[in-house]
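User: My advisor, Dr. K., asked me to get a structural model of this assembly before our group meeting. I'm new to this, so sorry if the format is off. These are the inputs:
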Amino acid sequence: DGIDLDLERTARRGYPEAIYCAGKTPEQVGAIAREVGTRPDVTTLFTRAGDAHAEAVLHELPDAFHDREAGLLAWPPTPPETGGGRVVVVGAGTSDLPVAREVVHTARYLGREVELIMDAGVAGLHRILRRRDTLRAARVVVVVAGMDGALPSVVAGLVSAPVVAVPTSVGYGASFGGVAALLTMLNSCSPGVSVVNIDNGYGAGHLAAQIAAP
Amino acid sequence: DGIDLDLERTARRGYPEAIYCAGKTPEQVGAIAREVGTRPDVTTLFTRAGDAHAEAVLHELPDAFHDREAGLLAWPPTPPETGGGRVVVVGAGTSDLPVAREVVHTARYLGREVELIMDAGVAGLHRILRRRDTLRAARVVVVVAGMDGALPSVVAGLVSAPVVAVPTSVGYGASFGGVAALLTMLNSCSPGVSVVNIDNGYGAGHLAAQIAAP
Amino acid sequence: DGIDLDLERTARRGYPEAIYCAGKTPEQVGAIAREVGTRPDVTTLFTRAGDAHAEAVLHELPDAFHDREAGLLAWPPTPPETGGGRVVVVGAGTSDLPVAREVVHTARYLGREVELIMDAGVAGLHRILRRRDTLRAARVVVVVAGMDGALPSVVAGLVSAPVVAVPTSVGYGASFGGVAALLTMLNSCSPGVSVVNIDNGYGAGHLAAQIAAP
Amino acid sequence: DGIDLDLERTARRGYPEAIYCAGKTPEQVGAIAREVGTRPDVTTLFTRAGDAHAEAVLHELPDAFHDREAGLLAWPPTPPETGGGRVVVVGAGTSDLPVAREVVHTARYLGREVELIMDAGVAGLHRILRRRDTLRAARVVVVVAGMDGALPSVVAGLVSAPVVAVPTSVGYGASFGGVAALLTMLNSCSPGVSVVNIDNGYGAGHLAAQIAAP
Amino acid sequence: DGIDLDLERTARRGYPEAIYCAGKTPEQVGAIAREVGTRPDVTTLFTRAGDAHAEAVLHELPDAFHDREAGLLAWPPTPPETGGGRVVVVGAGTSDLPVAREVVHTARYLGREVELIMDAGVAGLHRILRRRDTLRAARVVVVVAGMDGALPSVVAGLVSAPVVAVPTSVGYGASFGGVAALLTMLNSCSPGVSVVNIDNGYGAGHLAAQIAAP
Amino acid sequence: DGIDLDLERTARRGYPEAIYCAGKTPEQVGAIAREVGTRPDVTTLFTRAGDAHAEAVLHELPDAFHDREAGLLAWPPTPPETGGGRVVVVGAGTSDLPVAREVVHTARYLGREVELIMDAGVAGLHRILRRRDTLRAARVVVVVAGMDGALPSVVAGLVSAPVVAVPTSVGYGASFGGVAALLTMLNSCSPGVSVVNIDNGYGAGHLAAQIAAP
Amino acid sequence: DGIDLDLERTARRGYPEAIYCAGKTPEQVGAIAREVGTRPDVTTLFTRAGDAHAEAVLHELPDAFHDREAGLLAWPPTPPETGGGRVVVVGAGTSDLPVAREVVHTARYLGREVELIMDAGVAGLHRILRRRDTLRAARVVVVVAGMDGALPSVVAGLVSAPVVAVPTSVGYGASFGGVAALLTMLNSCSPGVSVVNIDNGYGAGHLAAQIAAP
Amino acid sequence: DGIDLDLERTARRGYPEAIYCAGKTPEQVGAIAREVGTRPDVTTLFTRAGDAHAEAVLHELPDAFHDREAGLLAWPPTPPETGGGRVVVVGAGTSDLPVAREVVHTARYLGREVELIMDAGVAGLHRILRRRDTLRAARVVVVVAGMDGALPSVVAGLVSAPVVAVPTSVGYGASFGGVAALLTMLNSCSPGVSVVNIDNGYGAGHLAAQIAAP
Ligand SMILES: Nc1ncnc2c1ncn2[C@@H]1O[C@H](COP(=O)(O)O)[C@@H](O)[C@H]1O
Ligand SMILES: Nc1ncnc2c1ncn2[C@@H]1O[C@H](COP(=O)(O)O)[C@@H](O)[C@H]1O
Ligand SMILES: Nc1ncnc2c1ncn2[C@@H]1O[C@H](COP(=O)(O)O)[C@@H](O)[C@H]1O
Ligand SMILES: Nc1ncnc2c1ncn2[C@@H]1O[C@H](COP(=O)(O)O)[C@@H](O)[C@H]1O
Ligand SMILES: [Mg+2]
Ligand SMILES: [Mg+2]
Ligand SMILES: [Mg+2]
Ligand SMILES: [Mg+2]
Ligand SMILES: [Mg+2]
Ligand SMILES: [Mg+2]
Ligand SMILES: [Mg+2]
Ligand SMILES: [Mg+2]
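Assistant: The format is fine. Below is the predicted structure of the whole assembly, which you can bring to the meeting.
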């Protein structure tokens, strides 16, 4: 039927497979969930899952972890023991929360300890400045921001850890679905910033887990 | 010969004419300078003047003010008496200096008092934070920045005055000749920011003079 | 829960907080409204509110001002006393009315006197020319236009006040959701024009209030 | 050698061939000029000719008409007798002159009577308003403008003749080499405007000649 | 209430007002229709009318002409007597029919005789070649095409009349909603082609009527 | 009624007509299906058929072949006898399946033998490397991929047959509806890759059939 | 020194290595030429060679074939014996000749018989129509066109062979360096067209040789 | 004079200041070099230095390290002792060498051990596959690639370390100065890839040093 799960990825690369649900039918996702259920030794994530996808997964794996806003499911539901350095995730505004939570869960299910700071946009600098200690304790900082995407430049100027920037599609007009924030981040005047795709919380969480690996 | 100077603009709008040299031949600019020389009662600016343009102007108006890096000449060379509020111009990096100086001269020759703060990019926040008092004394702040264009968002969060943002073409790759900075500024998460064209120091200085008018 | 309202903004910057509803759930907006209700000393705006957002706000603050077409709510419903200069808002066509009204309400709730001129597009110049007196009485003019976005260039040529241009997404095809109007405005051949994001009536109203501040 | 001149185009379509020099070597253009010299019964234009191209043409056809700024040559040098309606060409600013002259010459060599109005940009509306009579005598109006490209919308609102709009690459930054003006013109809020390629004075002149044909 | 109909346009420009419905509420369109009903001496078009708009118009003007697919209504329903030259409209594919019909109706209600040729795309050249006689009888040809937008170049090579090209949003992927066809047409290798906005059948019909005016 | 089927295309070009349903009403498609039913000697494809289109076709041609996911119908339902070389179709991920199947059916109904390899994306190179023998038996390989679109470069490095690359709109954010994959493929560092439009399975299948023709 | 020539490519893929000179220093290209000189059994192409590159190659391989306009060198200078089907290359205008010749040479040095038709643009259809017999004798047709890029759609409608379309950067303004032609070709309304990168004569010649392989 | 060196950055962030030369005059760069010469305790990099910039630096700091092709100078010339994990840099083609070397030097001068693999593009997979052991010994891999930018996706599928992808401007036509490679990398189908700006070797080297920090 055309689906060829890469469940050996954990063995090969050390990190588990994730199922990108967006382009699949609920039937396809359900079939994958059934196969996943045979491998409780491997943690599997389902990302960008709409309600119908989630239902199909939960039908096969009723105890799966599910964060509806973040569109993410995980099975088995208990994250592995934590190891490596600490991941700090910073979100600029409330509207960035779904993506920020996708980062948090992904890094957690890949075995890292994670802390989340929200509503720290640069329009009120005091909000990020008062969290400087938390930021400086991180092995890697993930910054999630839409609109002007200015926050990663500011954060990278405050810490010595690498910064992973996640542009979000929050905004309108000339934000062009996150392109404005993406470009801001690619052109950061602070060195130490790298960028993932717009709204790609999964990719940022995965990368953060790799950077903070033991 | 097709040129129809709008020297009555001062009467009509209260602000003098400026000659945009970039698309004109030195001969055309020289002819305009000759005409300008008959009207010492009006201040005229020549903007985006290359070396050949400047030479043509200075041949007709040898005592004209000339800032070569900013590509700007003014005649008569003495700015009018200052009036209205104070204009503060902030530049993110050294490479933004030519545009920042175009802002400064334009506002000065339109009769405002101007102060310039340079090298205040967000990669080292302490540099802008220690100038908070200067910023708060302004009737309007002009912020000039290339690359990520993040500085106006930060400045607008610190002051109650309106902020005019000038994106510059400083940068490379995905800065797309200033487009990245332009989009950042249009999507500023701080209210109170408006934007002019990339590298348009003249436009920003003009607008600042209007905002700070008596 | 990740939300960190900046209600001290009035103290810090002199202008109140506004809640951008578009990326938030009605539940989040409702929770904010509840908090807002504890601070009748501060005027709070809710912008880009859909019907569900409005309902959530009105459930907490039943007497809030609501302009459904403009997607805006304000509480307390009575604007502060007016002060400073006059803001004149000009709209090119009927379809620009929702954005124009967002400008009007924002400036009013920030304490300015506001006048609105509608249907003044350049296809029939007599419509804007006959309002010259109103335009010249303004401390700042906000021009709202979609499609070709040509109106701000014409208005800026008629007045000595600064012009804030708001491109709207009105149009189709090569208007690219307002990009055509945005570019027109950024390239205005009349000095004295600055630009905010597409459909950003809130930003323009805020800026106009700052420019016309006492 | 790969070149296959379409000198029969006059017979077939009623309008002569034009040689687009930009992508050709001076040698190729010279060879074409030699062939053209055998057909004095047909008017041939050479467009977008740089200095080396012009030299190659003039070597073969020493009496050819040459406007260096417009990059255009014509042979035989005397235009045909005029017929049909009048073509009025309007240019926004001095920098648009080279393109405006390409329009003028093309229409003249295709047999039309042409009048040129320059420096009529919308920043000073009085300049175009005082030429209303000239505009209204036209069978077709060609409007040439860079930067904001707002002039065609204004002109089309004043006349009943069709308007051909020519965006020019005059401007900088977000004018994107004429794209801003092109989009403005495509989105004109005045009906009766059609558009040709950026800087395409030849195309506009040709079209105007066809529209004003007897 | 902000609406300022330009019903004097017929007097001023010789062509009637058209109401662009897309950005208006059905209530606003209904109010306009009521006003239109007081002026049976003037032909008024309603363009880009959805079902709710059409209903609102027909409620006020029950005998109005309505082409649902073209989204166009006209009142009074009888077109004026024809005069001037003939307009020929050519459509590339069946999917371009709604736009082609918008062209046809607009030119008819502006007083021209119109002929429509459909399904004449360049993939089967014989289809357009066999209509050469019809094409050559035209005073102006309007060519409507999506996808590659190649048809206007071919048609312009066959006729001496001017060609108005209308790109449509027919296509997918890299057609970018009509941008590909628009660019093709702007870069036509046949002189004598000008272009209107994507899907702008109204603009093309208006222009054709002006070109073919008596 | 404006529809002019090109059923003689088989005679003229050797390949049957295909009906592009996306821009047509179900009624138009039904009328075409009726006409198609009179020509059982010719294979006709209906592409990009939604449910309503399919219903209209099946009402006229109840035994037509229908793949709903691929949006494709064919009549008569039996493909012609196979001839020529073998076509191998490779899909990167499960989400590319609908487009990959459009390729497969098109090539089959044009008379080729086709083999499909799915889920062979470059994130797990072993998946494509183990199919090297199948790839090398192909006369032409069609590679279907979204997101990074990297697979065709890898495949073209492994085979001597020409590769037709089909970018898909699978992805989000900076995939820009398939533009990222399209650009990757146009810039392939492996020679021997050509590209069709985003999601254009029909075009790729047609071309593959032509390349592998006897 | 970082260079790792893939001279085994002939063995692996059946086609020789080509050296892309554009991004290399003349010294690097010279060093490669020296290595190439040790392998007279393999045909090697140097593409996009400027004058300095060519000089460096000819210093090592004085008898190499060199077409300066096409920026191509080949060694050994004698092409292999021809085999497989015939490749026909069609160029739209004289300015497309350099790219067309890059196609011709590449296919010749990969062992195909090639015929070139130039100046066959769609503005004068008779020029391509009179070459129908030549076109129909081809196993594959390569069409090279800039500006509107309309020629491949027309050619593909005339032949049953596959068409490889090469957009060129010939044009100006809204041709965007070949993007307009590229999009036209990707959206061809004639099936059977695939596209390579702008100005990629090498890629098209390579692909044509593969399609026409014995 | 507007320049405000951030030489305390080492103290604050743990990494030294770098001087971006591109937008500065040689005089400005020379003045900075003089100041740098007073701080031999801190390593300073000069990036994007043209010949005139390099000369100005070497005049002040004659023993500075200088890689002309990479546009980079460093002073003091001896890199600090190495510490932390190993950085492996992979370049796709010879033309990517200048950027790859900018990565190498930056990471070296920030105290890491670095290994460089060149000419490993995906057109010949064996070249990267045979370096698997080197890749797997890395704490972080930096992949530098232009054109299709496909290499990072392949590399990330082979290793468990994080991958920093650097798109280069190598290519032509639809590579759009590196945008194609940038988009490929942002859309990588392998998790664990993050991206920096086009040609930003400095940024990638800095980030790699941070990721591999002790
Ligand atoms: N939300 C996501 N964004 C980007 N890549 C993802 C996402 N979720 C999963 N992936 C990757 O895409 C691959 C899934 O593709 P598929 O095989 O079509 O499910 C997995 O191997 C993941 O590494
Ligand atoms: N640097 C500049 N950028 C944008 N607009 C300018 C600039 N300099 C002058 N202008 C405006 O453009 C007009 C000059 O156009 P021109 O008549 O062609 O010289 C003046 O009236 C100015 O208001
Ligand atoms: N400046 C121009 N812009 C656009 N098209 C032109 C121009 N000059 C000539 N042409 C057209 O392009 C064709 C010339 O192409 P060529 O045969 O390469 O000289 C002519 O047939 C003209 O109709
Ligand atoms: N899915 C498709 N994508 C691109 N072109 C298609 C597709 N289906 C059919 N076509 C072509 O478009 C033409 C159909 O246009 P129409 O006459 O409007 O049905 C046919 O002649 C096909 O060659
Ligand atoms: Mg998978
Ligand atoms: Mg002027
Ligand atoms: Mg907030
Ligand atoms: Mg020609
Ligand atoms: Mg109106
Ligand atoms: Mg058809
Ligand atoms: Mg190589
Ligand atoms: Mg600095």
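One thing worth pointing out at the meeting: Chain H has two domains: 9-75, 86-211.

User: Perfect, thanks a lot.
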